[in-house]
Specification:
The complex is a heterodimer of chains A (240) and B (788). Chain A has 240 residues and is of the alpha/beta class. Chain A has one domain: Rossmann fold. Chain A has 7 helices and 10 strands. In chain A, 48% of the residues are buried. The radius of gyration of chain B is 34 Å and the shape is elongated. In chain B, a hairpin with a 2-residue loop joins strand 13 (496-511) and strand 14 (514-523). The chains are: A alpha/beta (240), B alpha+beta (788).
Chain lengths: 240, 788
């Protein structure tokens, strides 16, 4: 615990709930979550689908609203932010990587990264970002000309190019085979180490937990357990 | 440096070029109509004005019986008169063939040296008659063309009772004779009225007018009071048999041209906005659904931190590029179509040149409407998307809850297979979206219904006029009113089956400030050969106590049955009468007024007078009858119904009515555009579903059924709507096409509706085929790999 005290807290969450729908049809995605996440760590949120981990990620990323509770980023309350404040919060601090890459099919790899560097304050050069994810050779290819793993790496390059404080990854390897998946995780690890970016990975692939500083187990919309790994494995050592 | 968003925009446009082009075409056609009609009307109006100015058409015409040349100086000194000129005119008869009746002509003098100061002419071919060669004449080009007469030919004409031989040396056009109408007829016909120009000395000799004139032409200073000048002219020339000076607005040809241009202007004001409004509505529907399908990308951009304003601007640019390109293409097309139409009308109006003039306001209207409807369509959807949190927007809409729709179709489970149920439930679940498609297709179809019905209306107008109203074979006009014995004599001619008298009296009809220069036709009590009918196409009996007005005339005068009308007779002793309106008649041609012939003659105190007759004849003896009539000096003109019918059809096909063809084509394209767009969008919305079906083992046809079944149901639902909406739209459009010269009735034409239905169904089939081809070609894996 001593280590935590040295680190700055990035996210602080208290009594967070999220309910979709009303009455009998209501779905309780989050049923009261309390959590503190320090900066600079790789955090893996594990749990079966529907356990609420993606909902938490979306709320922390400023993509979704909560029903009750508080969630702050570096002391600023996210749930009280206006639409415009959330937009600039995302613009300045957050990078997203999605399971299905969400690249713009009509833009090249380079241009997809540029889409973000365009609106960031002190971005990486798109070429540099692509180099970090190992795609220097494929910068001018369109998404349709890239494999799934390559597309996901473009998505990561796009997410990190703005030098975000936090990188949110929702099932980043969900659509990939194990070899490609490992390569993607490797990129995430490098980002964490090289840029000091806090990386939050939501997944239901338990093996991913082995590369994390901290693992949060989710079930039924609540945190069941938080485990801090004494030793982290390199993605290449992870057994799937 | 182009921003990545702008590059996305360009590539998206390139990817969707087919659909973008279809959308742009729809709005472009709306703008095209607007610009074309505006430019056409302005060009014609400007050309007419320039023609009049350049050839110094007189402002006031003052016919007299015979006045000495010295009066010219006095006329020229009247306050407000800028220029004055005298001339000699006379009526003549031209013999063309033995078989035909002689053709009525007007002979007009030109000065013995030089050209006319007023009412100049444009020499198209040949030369001006040489002074001192009294047999040389020039002919109106329209007549010469219709009769295939070329300079150098000889021609026999009767002037003032004497038959003389002439040589045609030139063909001319004149702003005074853009239209020529044979006496007793409403529809102009180049072939049946001629104008002859001769040197003054020769013409004066023929009409015994040496040292005298029988018409004064006057050009006015700017700002001069026409009424005052007319009054002074009448006073000054009263002793010389002044028939009453009249202004350009009452000059026959100018009145006709003005009326035609006015009709076109009304069409241009009424019809294109309807097209533009329909196109704008379609644009709105198409754009809003297109933006809807971009929902996930919008969510993603928001997730990256793009503001709502930035995202809105991006999509606005996208739709504006389409709308503006469409509008520009429409405007350019409209300019070209307008010019092409103007050239077409140039021949119709016989202008020697064209002064192209665009209608700037139509550009503004076209662009503003296109941009507004596109922007509103996209902003409306964007606002809805922005109301969602980015996380929700980025997800495909959660699988729609079909449980409600399921209830509706539970009973059908037994009868419907799985794909049919998919189609039905989707339609029931998205009533709004389906309504959009139905309304869009229905509106497009309504345009087609209206334009096709209008076509049927034109045919109906011809048919009513010549089969129901006018059942005679020929109509005779006498030189001057005769005793009614003349008709009895005509009826006795071998081959004449029936003869019916008519008395036509020129009048000015007045109701307060509303007035109309026209004529009253006296008819027998129960006309058989040329009938007067009401709205139900039942014959109206002439009653003694009042006048029956054609509907457009009643509209002009703002009177109804039971109102009193002031009638200023312009012939004979020129009495002013107060006559009640006793009925309203349905007419297709002109704006006539009818009275019982006996009552009319009594009111004029000229009992037993007739000015013409309608005949029905034995067609086997037609030539014989024509030959007999030819020998009757009292007969000024004969119009055979077939000629009149042909002239009317030609007028409708070449005059303002000609635009109906273009409108029908545009309506058809717009209808196809909206059906095709509806099919494309439905396909875009369901790419994944369709691929999934294929993967599951459905055949191509079974898969296509899910999509095309929807299109089929939407199309079928749109048909009754198109019929209903088309019915009302017809009234709006037909209104714009009726002119003072002919009226177009709104008819319920089953074939027009049938054709519109066939067109929509055909458009749906073609669209369905195009879309199915797309589905068949679709890359299944790619479609499924797309994030969902």
């Amino acid at each position: 615990m001593a280590r935590n005290d040295e680190k700055q807290i990035a996210f602080s969450v208290r009594g967070l709930t999220k309910t979709y729908g009303e009455g009998a049809a209501a779905v309780h995605a989050l049923r009261g979550v309390d959590l503190d996440l320090p900066r600079g760590e790789i955090v893996v949120l594990l749990g079966p689908s529907g356990s609420g981990k993606s909902t938490l990620l979306n709320i922390l990323g400023g993509l979704d609203s909560a029903s009750s509770g508080t969630a702050s980023f570096e002391g600023r309350e996210l749930l009280e932010m206006s639409d415009a404040e959330l937009t600039s919060y995302r613009r300045e601090n957050i990078g997203f990587v999605f399971q299905f890459y969400n690249l713009m099919p009509s833009l090249t790899a380079y241009e997809n990264v540029e889409l973000v560097t365009e609106i960031a304050d002190d971005p990486l050069d798109p070429g540099e970002a692509l180099e970090i994810v190992g795609l220097k050779e494929r910068t001018h290819h369109f998404p349709s000309e890239l494999s799934g793993g390559e597309q996901q790496r473009v998505a990561i390059a796009r997410a990190i190019a703005k030098r975000p404080t936090v990188l949110f990854c929702d099932e980043p390897t969900g659509a990939l085979d194990s070899t490609t998946g490992r390569a993607v995780l490797h990129v995430l690890k490098n980002v964490n180490e090289q840029l000091g970016t806090t990386v939050l990975i939501v997944t239901h692939a338990a093996a991913t937990a082995q590369m994390a500083d901290r693992v949060i187990y989710f079930a039924d919309g609540a945190i069941r357990e938080v485990v801090e790994n004494e030793t982290k494995l390199d993605p290449s050592e992870i057994e799937w | 440096m182009v921003s990545p968003l702008d590059r996305k925009l360009l590539r998206d446009l390139a990817r969707m070029k087919g659909q973008a082009a279809a959308i742009a075409a729809v709005i472009g056609l709306g703008v095209l109509m607007q610009v074309m009609m505006g430019g056409l009307v302005n060009t014609l109006d400007q050309t007419r004005q320039t023609y009049y100015d350049r050839y110094r058409l007189a402002d006031v015409f003052a016919p007299v019986t015979r006045a000495p040349d010295r009066m010219l100086d006095r006329v020229a000194r009247i306050d407000g008169v800028a220029a004055a000129e005298t001339r000699v005119t006379g009526s003549a008869l031209i013999d063309i063939t033995d078989r035909e009746l002689p053709i009525r002509a007007q002979a007009i003098s030109i000065p013995d040296t030089g050209g006319p100061r007023l009412n100049d002419f444009f020499l198209v071919e040949g030369r001006v008659p040489s002074p001192g060669h009294p047999s040389e004449i020039m002919l109106l080009e329209g007549f010469a063309d219709a009769r295939a007469i070329i300079p150098g030919e000889r021609l026999t004409a009767t002037m003032n009772g004497a038959k003389r031989e002439f040589q045609v040396v030139g063909l001319v056009q004149s702003p005074e004779f853009l239209y020529t109408t044979a006496p007793g007829e409403l529809v102009p016909d180049d072939a049946r009225f001629a104008v002859i120009w001769m040197r003054r000395a020769a013409l004066s000799a023929a009409y015994d007018m040496n040292g005298a004139f029988n018409e004064v032409l006057v050009a006015l200073n700017r700002g001069a009071n026409v009424e005052v000048v007319k009054a002074k002219l009448d006073l000054m020339l009263d002793a010389f048999g002044a028939a009453g000076a009249y202004g350009l607005e009452h000059q026959a040809s100018n009145r006709f041209v003005s009326e035609e241009i006015r009709g076109l202007r009304i069409s241009a004001t009424v019809v294109p906005p309807i097209f533009l409004a329909v196109a704008a509505f379609l644009l709105y529907i198409v754009i809003s659904r297109m933006v809807q399908s971009e929902r996930e990308e919008i969510g993603l951009l928001k997730a990256f931190g793009y503001t709502s304003a930035e995202v809105s601007i991006h999509y606005l640019k996208f739709v504006l590029v389409i709308a503006i390109l469409g509008a520009i293409a429409g405007a350019l097309g409209g300019i070209m179509a307008g010019r092409w139409m103007a050239v077409f009308y140039q021949y119709y109006f016989k202008f020697p040149f064209l002064v192209f003039e665009l209608d700037k306001s139509s550009f503004v209207t076209g662009f503003v409407v296109s941009i507004l409807s596109a922007s509103v369509g996209s902003l409306f959807v964007l606002r809805g998307v922005f109301n969602l949190t980015p996380a929700v927007a980025m997800r495909p809409p959660a699988p729609t809850d079909y449980s409600r729709a399921a209830k509706f179709s539970q009973g059908m489970r037994r009868y419907l297979d799985q794909p049919s149920r998919m189609v039905l439930r989707r339609l029931l679940r998205h009533p709004g979206r389906m309504a959009g498609s139905v309304i869009g297709i229905g509106t497009g179809m309504a345009l087609s219904v209206a334009t096709l019905t209008m076509m049927a209306g034109f045919e109906r107008a011809v048919d009513l006029t010549f089969s129901v109203i006018d059942r005679s074979d020929m109509a005779l006009t006498f030189v001057t009113p005769l005793s009614d014995r003349a008709v009895i004599d005509l009826a006795r001619q071998p081959g004449v089956e029936h003869a019916e008298p008519v008395r036509v009296v020129p009048v000015i009809l007045r109701n307060g400030v509303h007035s109309y220069n026209g004529a009253i036709e006296g008819r027998v009590q129960q006309p058989q050969l040329n009938r007067v009918i009401d709205k139900r196409i039942l014959p109206i009996e002439m009653r003694r106590e009042g006048v029956i007005l054609a509907e457009p005339l009643a509209d002009i005068l703002r009177v109804d049955a039971g109102d009193m009308l002031t009638v200023e007779v312009r012939e004979g002793r020129r009495p002013v009468l107060e006559i009640p309106v006793i009925g309203i008649a349905q007419t297709m041609l002109g704006a006539p007024a009818f009275m019982e012939i006996g009552a009319l003659n009594r009111a004029l105190k000229e009992p037993g007078r007739v000015s013409g007759a309608f005949l029905s004849v034995d067609s086997a003896k037609r030539d014989q009858i024509v030959a007999a009539i030819k020998d009757m000096p009292a007969v000024a003109g004969v119009s055979q119904k077939e000629d009149a019918r042909r002239a009317l059809v030609e007028l409708m096909n070449t005059g303002p009515g000609a635009t109906r063809y273009i409108m029908t084509i545009v309506a058809a394209i717009i209808t196809f555009g909206i059906v095709y767009n509806a099919a494309r969008i439905a396909r875009a919305e369901r790419t994944r579903d369709l691929a999934s079906l294929r993967v599951m083992g459905f055949t191509r046809n079974e898969t296509a059924f899910v999509l095309l079944g929807e299109l089929a149901i939407v199309t079928l639902a749109a048909l009754p709507m198109g019929v209903g909406l088309g019915y009302y739209l017809t009234y709006l459009i037909v209104e714009g096409f009726s002119t003072d010269i002919y009226q177009i009735p709104v008819v319920f034409s089953p074939s027009a509706y049938g054709a519109a239905i066939v067109a929509v169904v055909l458009a749906a089939l073609v669209s369905g085929w195009l879309v199915k081809r797309d589905i068949d070609r679709a890359d299944l894996i790619a479609a499924l790999k797309t994030r969902d």
